[in-house]
Amino acid sequence: MVDRYSPHFVELIPELPSWNNGKGIDPKGWIECVGNYELATGYSLVFWPNFVRFEGYVLREGFSEESLRSFERTEYSDRMSVEAVMNHVHIVDIHRSVEPTEAQLRYLGRVLKDIYEAKLGRDFPELRIIVSFHDEAGLDLDDYQLTFWQATD
Fold first, then answer.
1. pTM of the model
2. Is the dihedral of CA 125, 81, 73, 144 positive or negative?
3. Is residue 20 domain-resident?
4. 119 falls within a domain
5. Are 89 and 103 in contact (CB under 8 A)?
6. Tens digit of pLDDT for each residue in 114-132?
């Protein structure tokens, strides 16, 4: 498995070794060649999301109030469980048209967990917010999920 802090990018981006007539390319150089500013702009919404306060909740911007009310009405719901379900993100949904590998989902989930912790801490320093990522090997790809909720003291 890929270590979050020293990943084997060839496992995550298999085409790297085939670039430059088989001499390979590093991930930064690869991005410079195949990326574009439209994608970079769009990815900013994934990698630096906006969060809002709403009636005591901390939620991802663009949430559905109708969904929120529906989750509030479920048996045994409390603020923590409602926040967790409202804020969950399936990493596989970042791109719906391609099949990722487990290693890619786990790497991205770990990075996003770090980002969410930093951003939520910056945006809401007065709150203690728990960020969770399902990072177990062998899960169904849809089960690699990230979520967050306010801790209760």
1. 0.90
2. positive
3. yes
4. yes
5. no
6. 999 999 999 999 999 999 9
